[in-house]
Write a sequence for this structure.
């Protein structure tokens, strides 16, 4: 072989090395998280999503980049959503009312959500079975649990006669929760009084005057127990609600464990952290080619009963041993 041909072959081989290396380098995928809160505060929900992604083989720094964006409520969420979309993510994962901001800005980028309301009522999806657009995910609105919470409260405090329901009328799905409550109250022979809390349109709540007015109305109505419909606005003021319930000597129940951790007597509902971990499965399927339009919107399957013994003691209540045995967590 002539020297010139040898040089040409060697040169071609060297030139091909970067192409070979590039072909072996795994593609790094890009998703964005739009959260409710502040960047300097820990987020159990983002941490749960990360854990769920690892379950499916997606590891930050290896084959995945997650950029997180934070808004405090309606005042700034659209601007934050615009900043997020300017980074051109492959998928947006978001929570609660944040979805309203990003939904209005794109119909092309897949959006995976954890949502406490009814996605059908706000027209996020065409149906649970087939969403039909660019939004899918999970809701922690489980209507069959609404009645179960009231039954548990009645089991814990058999003398309950008149329930106060504290609810936010703006919450998607609230009418369905109210109907479910009315049905079980009628079956149990109880009375029900409904107290709407018209929450401010931003978070964190700065003006609690409306909430205090609602508290006074509950006292004046002589209710002896309190049912709190959980949503992001109620979550924001959960400590105020718990303090009121204890001072008013009202047995109380809601749907998410942090309400019990903040002082409510009991909660029964979905494990919200587990739900956000499950969202990793949606992200995995979309990254591998699935369309959000074809991924069914799901309801939670992992439930937990949490009882706050400290609150029970403050109210002078003895928790039935059978109920304690069924609890997933007891706060002492």
């Amino acid at each position: 072989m002539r020297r010139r041909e040898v040089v040409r072959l060697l040169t071609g081989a060297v030139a091909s090395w970067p192409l070979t290396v590039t072909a072996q380098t795994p593609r790094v995928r890009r998703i964005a998280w739009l959260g409710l809160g502040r960047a300097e505060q820990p987020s159990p929900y983002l941490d749960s999503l990360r854990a769920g992604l690892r379950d499916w083989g997606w590891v930050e720094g290896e084959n995945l980049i997650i950029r997180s964006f934070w808004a405090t409520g309606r005042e700034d969420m659209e601007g934050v959503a615009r900043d997020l979309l300017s980074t051109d993510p492959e998928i947006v994962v978001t929570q609660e009312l944040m979805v309203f901001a990003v939904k209005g800005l794109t119909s092309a980028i897949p959006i995976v959500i954890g949502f406490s309301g009814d996605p059908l009522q706000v027209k996020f999806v065409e149906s649970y079975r087939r969403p039909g657009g660019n939004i899918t995910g999970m809701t922690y609105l489980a209507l069959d649990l609404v009645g179960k919470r009231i039954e548990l409260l009645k089991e814990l405090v058999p003398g309950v006669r008149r329930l106060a329901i504290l609810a936010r009328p703006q919450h998607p799905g609230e009418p369905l929760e109210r109907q479910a409550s009315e049905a079980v109250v009628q079956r149990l022979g109880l009375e029900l009084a409904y107290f709407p809390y018209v929450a401010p349109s931003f978070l964190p709540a700065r003006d609690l005057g409306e909430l205090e007015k609602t508290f006074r109305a509950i006292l004046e109505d002589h209710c002896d127990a309190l049912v709190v419909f959980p949503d992001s606005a109620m979550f924001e003021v959960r400590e105020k609600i718990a303090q009121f319930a204890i001072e008013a000597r009202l047995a109380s129940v809601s749907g998410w464990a942090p309400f019990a951790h903040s002082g409510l007597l009991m909660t029964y509902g979905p494990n919200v952290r587990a739900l956000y971990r499950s969202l990793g499965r949606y992200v995995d399927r979309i990254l591998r080619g699935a369309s959000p339009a074809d991924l069914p919107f799901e309801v939670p399957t992992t439930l937990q009963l949490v009882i706050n013994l400290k609150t029970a003691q403050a109210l002078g209540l003895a928790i039935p041993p059978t109920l304690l045995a069924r609890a997933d967590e007891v706060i002492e």
In short: The chain has two domains: 29-141+272-294, 143-269+303-331. The first strand starts at residue 29 and ends at 36. The CA atoms of residues 200 and 207 lie 8 Å apart.
